[in-house]
């Protein structure tokens, strides 16, 4: 039986590792070493610029330790905005391993896009006419979403959603305006899975289908899965997401 890969989870915008712990705990119980990245873009009080690049570098460093130092394979699960920084991070890792990696290093076994954005090389999140409504950007360049319940947790009651809503934090605006450096989903031969959330108000099914078409047109070894939930299954249905991810990994 193949050795279980480590799992790296890349959060979406405004989200922090604690949002993903209900899901991550289940992965760990099932025997998967699991690391949740904390994006620098949600760890600053003022936007210093170029935050997409900084987010990707931190994720790359997390994977580098697992893949190169510990010679493990990795599955990277990218939620929402995490698909942008995570794709660049996977590409950075592949580039680094090609020059500096140990001979017996591991690899990125699969990239999992969980209701996530799939951008072309050189494309920013807020490029090509993409608009995200209800954003407020303050004088420090930090953005807050004014309607996070409706967008991310509308398939549970507002009372039930209060705990994850209380965890959300401001995010550096430049994470959305910095262009990607790579097309990590296409250019490194990494198999991908795209998970559509059928009740999603943030990355609706129509947008997911466009991203899936992009992956297929790029010649990606692709599997498509569905969950009958909104944008945040890691909190709302961690058991269902766990079952799906284990099937995807194994």
UniProtKB/TrEMBL annotation:
Residues 7-239 form the AB hydrolase-1 domain. Coiled coil: none annotated. It holds the Pfam family Abhydrolase_6. This is AB hydrolase-1 domain-containing protein. The lineage of its organism: Eukaryota, Fungi, Dikarya, Ascomycota, Pezizomycotina.
